[in-house]
Amino acid sequence: MARTFEFQMKVRDYECDSQGVVNNANYLHYFEAVRHEMMEHCGLRLRDLTDQNILPVVRNANISYKHSLRGSDEFVCQVKVERELLRYIFHQEIFRIPDNLLCAKASIEVVCLTNGRVSKPEIFDRAFADYITWR
User: What domains appear along the chain, each with residue ranges and CATH number?
Assistant: First the structure.
């Protein structure tokens, strides 16, 4: 069974809009930051990948907003990875701490470019082996 990656963060006041809630665009930043943390946890550094001309790029992003986060809220983002052909689909959910309220969920589709072409770099399959569900 594939594992779930979790990373905890805290809302910074400047991420909130005039209504005191997190601006919707910042959820994309949270999801991206957690994917980067997951990559590093799995031994992948973006700088090393770009030096090898391997670029993970977002092909599609779908976000559902459920409940607002506010300034200073702490939250955890959970990530599950699904592999389908040349795509990695990151299923991510943000839960507010301490009540475990689901605030946002996303499905982020990522493909890898190697030397500018869509590829199937096995380095990701090896790094994410414990987290991938194959489709």
Answer: 5-134 (3.10.129.10)
17 is catalytic: yes
pLDDT tens digit sequence for 41-93: 999 999 999 999 999 999 999 999 999 999 999 999 999 999 999 999 999 99
Give 3's contacts (C-beta < 8 A, 6+ positions apart): 130, 131
Catalytic residue among 13, 17, 48, 125: 17
Give me 29's structure tokens: 């930043």
Cα–Cα–Cα angle for 33, 61, 104, nearest 5°? 65
What is d(CA 110, CA 103) in angstroms, rounded to the nearest whole number? 22
